Amino acid sequence: MSLSITSAFDGGNIHVVGIDGDTADLEIVRDHESEFYQWFYFRVAGAEGRTVTLRILNAAGSAYPMGWPGYRARVSSDRESWTLADTSYRNGVLEITQPIDSQLAWFAYFAPYTIERHNALVARYAAVPGFAYRELGRSIDGQPIDSFTVGRGAKPVWLYARQHPGETMAEFWIEGVLERLADVADPVTAALLEKATFHIVPNMNPDGSARGHLRTNAVGINLNREWATPSPEKSPEVLCVRSAMDATGVAFAIDAHGDEAIPANFIAGFEGIPSWHDTLGDKFYRFQNALAAHTPDFQTQMGYPKSPAGKANLTMSTNQLAERFGAVAMTLEMPFKDHDANPDPVHGWSPERCRKLAHACLEVLAAQIDDI
Ligand code: ZN
Question: Among 89, 108, 127, which residue terminates a domain?
Answer without folding.
Answer: 108
